[in-house]
Design a protein that fits this description.
By secondary structure, the protein is an alpha/beta fold. It has two domains: 3-269, LarA, N-terminal domain (Rossmann fold); 289-376, Alpha-Beta Plaits, CATH 3.30.70.20. It contains 14 helices and 16 strands. Bound molecules: iron/sulfur cluster (SF4) (2 copies). One iron/sulfur cluster binds next to helix 13.
């Protein structure tokens, strides 16, 4: 049977409007919650950013979901583990993003997965044969995944599947980045984690998303949609269409197709919304591996510290799984020989001071091309 995905227009974070639109999205997929269910909400609270920065799930979406659940007398928990070594940690991310306030308003239980009991679980993944999951995730009767619509420099896009990476507590995230370095392997790891405890419902905050070099340093993009589905996988394929990505643009979707995990999908509601997103800079990790081994050093995009923006918080250094960042003479330095190009530092920098741009070689080619154009005019 086809997985239903609803797409509903919503152009503002006005709480009443968002509530109405979330209800509409849920009605379109025929979703009803049972009275008194124990529900765990998993938002995206990647780091301590205010809602207007479009990095985290907007509190209006979480609030709407809580209101619907409270009407059914559900017991609500909201749980997250922010990006590894995010400045101020998960507690700060939940507070700054406005999620803690929603939690207090609805008398929900706020759970920092980094401080939770961790349970070992055997799984049958392609990369993982076991996983350490926070107990509240395994105990939850029902999980509602609330991803934010954003691009992602490493895997192209972060949506429902990628958002479940936030059930992995603290340092283990960095370990996975290090051991599953390339795009292909990391995407497959994300899929393994998603299926280790598949969420029961997914509602995407696509009212204002992020394009370009997301998930934290991209450009804010008004998109005006809420997308809902019981299947996070189906939701991600519809989001891909809406933002105009295709082919290998979204590495998790590519991996899902290869693993034969893409379901039949039935769209309900708005079928023709298209808001073209600027793609993140192309990285070549894991693509055409034989070529990369030769050209990797010269073509892969380089990360660079913008020292004018840097305020020396050291979040990048703490989040680097390869220990490639050091603080020398009051300046952040990247050891290019150690760097595994995971872009965690770029993701976790609160000042967007870690920039990604073409390598010297690629810049040289671009300059030659531009020069040739001028000469041939
Ligand atoms: S580049 Fe500077 S501002 Fe950004 S995380 Fe590193 S130390 Fe902090
Ligand atoms: S320097 Fe940045 S991109 Fe390189 S390994 Fe460390 S966190 Fe990853």
């Amino acid at each position: 049977m086809a997985e239903k995905v609803s797409v509903v227009k919503c152009n503002s974070y006005d709480e009443e409007l968002v509530l109405e639109k979330v209800r509409e999205a849920l009605d379109l997929i025929g979703f009803k919650v049972k009275q008194g269910t124990n529900v765990l909400i998993k938002p995206n609270a990647l780091m301590g950013k205010v809602p207007e920065e479009a990095v985290t799930t907007h509190p209006a979406i979480i609030s709407a979901v809580c209101r619907i659940l409270k009407e059914k007398k559900c017991n609500i928990s909201i749980g997250e583990s922010a990006g590894f070594m995010a400045l101020g940690g998960t507690d700060y991310a939940l507070e700054k993003s406005g999620i803690k306030k929603v939690d207090e308003k609805y008398n929900a239980k706020l759970i920092n997965f980094d401080k939770s009991e961790i349970v070992f679980k055997k799984i049958n993944g392609e990369i993982l044969s076991s996983i350490n999951i926070p107990k509240p995730v395994l105990d939850a009767e029902f999980i509602i995944n609330l991803p934010k619509l954003k691009t992602h420099t490493l895997v192209g896009y972060t949506g429902a599947v990628k958002n479940m990476f936030g059930i992995i507590a603290g340092g283990k995230k960095a370990y996975y980045h290090k051991t599953c370095g390339n795009q292909k392997r990391f995407s497959n790891l994300l899929i393994d984690i998603y299926f280790a405890r598949k969420p029961d419902l997914n509602i995407m905050d696509g009212i204002v998303g992020m394009e370009g070099n997301g998930p934290s340093a991209g450009k804010i993009k008004k998109t005006g949609v809420i997308i809902a589905s019981r299947s996070g996988v189906a939701l991600d394929f519809i989001a891909e269409k809406i933002i105009g990505f295709s082919g290998d643009d979204i590495q998790t979707n590519t991996a899902l197709i290869r693993r034969n995990l893409k379901p039949e999908i039935e769209i309900r509601g708005e079928k023709n919304i298209r808001v073209s997103y600027e793609k993140p800079i192309k990285t070549f990790r894991g693509r055409l591996e034989f070529l990369i081994k030769i050209f990797y050093i010269v073509i892969n995009p380089r990360i660079k510290i913008n020292h004018k923006k840097c305020r020396k918080c050291l979040a990048c250094m703490k989040s680097c799984p390869a220990n490639a960042i050091s603080f020398v003479n009051e300046k952040i330095e990247i050891n290019k020989n150690k760097c595994i190009m995971c872009y965690c530092c770029h993701e976790m920098c609160p000042e967007s001071a870690i920039e990604i741009g073409p390598s010297k070689f690629v810049r040289f080619i671009i300059n030659i091309k531009n020069l040739a154009k001028k000469v041939l005019k």
